[in-house]
Amino acid sequence: MNMERLKKEYMNISNRLFIFDTTLRDGEQTPGVALTVDEKMQIARKLNNLGVHKIEVGFPAASKGELLACRKIKSMDLDTTVVGLARSLKQDIDAVLDSDLDYVHTFLGTSPLHRDYKLKMSKEEIIDTAVGGVEYAKDHGLTVEFSAEDGTRTEYDFLYEVFNSVVDAGVDFIDLPDTVGILTPITTYALVNDIKTNFETPLSVHFHNDFGLATANTIVAIERGANQAHVTVNGLGERTGNCSLEELVVTLKAAYGIDLGLDTTRLYSLSNLVGRLTGVKMPVNKPIVGDNAFAHESGIHVHGILNNASTYEPISPESVGHSRRIILGKHTGANSVKAKLKKYHLDLDDVQFNNVFSQIKSLGDSGKCVTDDDLIALAITELSSARETPIVLKGLGLSLGSNVSPTATVKLEISGVEKEAASTGVGPVDASINAIQSLISDTLDINLEEYNLEAITGGTDALAEVFVVTSDPEGNKSTGRSTNQDIVMASILAVLDSINKLLIIQSTNN
User: Fold this and answer.
1) One domain for residues 392 and 379
2) Distance between CA atoms of 440 and 464, rounded to whole angstroms?
């Protein structure tokens, strides 16, 4: 089936498809995650503002805190339908009623594994319990959705028998959970298609991601007529999680033209909130909401992006509340760097640009990603070095060891004459600066008033930026700046930059 035919066949999906978010229930079952009532309320508000149709807010029978969270979220008077989970047991359904909810999601294991090893119940007992739960909930005015837990590993004839029984009991939605994520798109297609052929009751799907197929399987299920998709923000959930809310919604919109009425520009901020509150940080390459979802480094890619973003982006970052990032590194092209420099109003001539560009490539080859701060520091250093430089560094030697004073030997060219001196200090930087001061003492008496060192990139080979302030006896002050992977070299170049400026100031004053 080609894409155009598929779009046409399912163009009305949005009229019968609901997004059922279970971040606050199944998502909270992510190992290591526990949300407070206030945190659940924050996420619920965000989900409501996004426009999801239903929010499963918890399992009221599990604890007093869960019941309180369900009750408080219900009291927020959200536009979305608020749902509570319950086993197919009277006491669990009573807890949902105590939460003031009017929609219950009941569940009961149906597979041989669940019947024999977890529940120790016969098929007849399973059906009686499932039906009893639905009837009790309906008698108390609740909308009821029933999940046949581990349904995809249940004998299909028995699964259908269970579904027929709860449909006869008045269930509003039947749910097919792929509890351990064993479905593939092909098996999903066949099973969902068969269920929709045999049942008119609306069908939900609740797919887990154990083999990385939850979102793909959910899309196929929707193609074959599923009326509701269970999802979680960031794909959170038991083990490897559930179908990802953001992946599903954006795929339906971008690939099929199906707009479910959700405000997708809120997806990135929602993802960040859930990541922060749960402590589960998203991988940088997470689709839609990962830090690298709209990041580009390759020169060929960036050149295309700068001309037309659609060349290497299937959707705009703004459509999901994200932003585009141009990353600098060894794959970077000149166009990327020029675009960044223009953004920060840094005007370099061709020679200066080539120097900065070569430094970026060198940093990339050493395994570094060059940030915008790195680029700004490199560019400013290059602009500073373009000024008149009466004093030029010609050589540097360092001697270090235990139980000996660090010694620096510095060679400078001063007004065309090379001079060399060695000095000690409390460290290699101090020793180097002392050597410089001894070499220029006949020319300029300086005082180092301020010295600041910042490691811009991470790691032991970090790109270091040094900023200094020097002064002369007349009260003149000047700043100096340099960026280098070698801290000592960055320090020396920053001091020389400042000294050269002082010399220019003195010559101007005279």
Assistant:
1) no
2) 25
